[in-house]
Amino acid sequence: EGPESFPPLRNEAAVRVLQGRMKGIQGHCNSCYMDAALFSLFSCTSVLDSMLFMPFPLCDRNVQGILRDEIVNPLRRTGFVRASSVMHLREQLTDKGQCSSFTNAEKDPEEFLNLIMQHILGIEPLLKLQSGGQKEHECYCYQIFMDKQEDLVVPDVQQLVERSFLSSDLKLVEIPSCFIIQMPRFGKEYKMFSKIIPSLELDITDLLLDSPRECCLCGDVATMEC
User: Fold this and answer.
1) CA–CA separation, 165 and 118 (whole Å)
2) Residues 168, 115: contact at Cβ < 8 Å?
3) DSSP state of 118
4) Which CA distances in Å does 156 have to 56, 58, 109, 139, 159?
5) d(Cα 81, Cα 71) in Å, to the nearest integer?
6) Residue environment code for 140-175, b if the CB has 16+ CB neighbours within 10 A, otherwise e
7) Structural domain boundaries, residue 184
8) Strand, coil or helix: what is 142?
9) Burial 7-27 (b: 16+ CB within 10 A, else e)
């Protein structure tokens, strides 16, 4: 008999199970970066459930079991994960990683994702990006970088991704199986946007390398990009 699994929460079930006090992943000792990442990756989507079940070549089964049985399954079943369960995962990451401060310090979510996906589970990179026609590079998530935009007061994710790709001269080499996007943030002192509206769907047509696009003037297939 294989490990128990619970499907991600959808629609009314998500509201019923996740809304209210003592719901979500309990924070403790600078764990917010990991709590938010885990909640985003697993609460309402199954796109990365291979992380919980697949026997990847480099996979650490102990870490995989903690992630599945102590964090994701309780979150989907009851809507609540104790801080002690996340600390158990953090202790394992500290043992496996090159960094001794996963149990007490605040980290960048990308550092956590790279460690668990690449070094502990051995998953292939999710994104292939190309900048300015240079050699393509692979990564697990994309962080939005952009200058202050006076015309964007309450942006949505679609606007932020498009402008960030444009300012960095980036293109997606292929359609990703999963597109993890980290919102712009600048620590405790300064927030570029007080709110960001989630885009429930992301149109990546303009972000894809060599994809046919329509001309904004005549509607035919475009031959030039402004």
Assistant:
1) 24
2) no
3) I
4) 35, 37, 21, 23, 6
5) 6
6) bbbebebeeeeeeeebebbbbbebbbeeeebbbeee
7) 127-222
8) strand
9) ebbeeeeeeebbeeeeebbbe
Q: Which residues are CB-neighbours of 133 under 8 A, at least 6 positions away?
A: none
- What is the token pair recorded at 99? 């960094």
Overall pTM > 0.85 = yes
Of the candidates 55, 182, 56, the residue with the CA atom closest to the CA atom of residue 110: 182
Domain closes at, from 120, 136, 163: 120
Cα separation of 47 and 72, whole Å? 13
What gap in Å lies between CA 139 and CA 162, rounded to an integer? 18
Structure tokens at 130: 């190309």
pLDDT level of residue 153 (50, 70, 90 thresholds): confident
Nearest CA-CA partner of 141 in 162, 120, 112, 169: 112
State how far the Cα of 82 lies from the Cα of 60, in Å rounded to an integer: 22
Of 88, 120, 152, which residue constitutes the final position of a domain?
120
87-116 pLDDT per residue, tens: 999 999 888 766 778 888 888 889 999 999
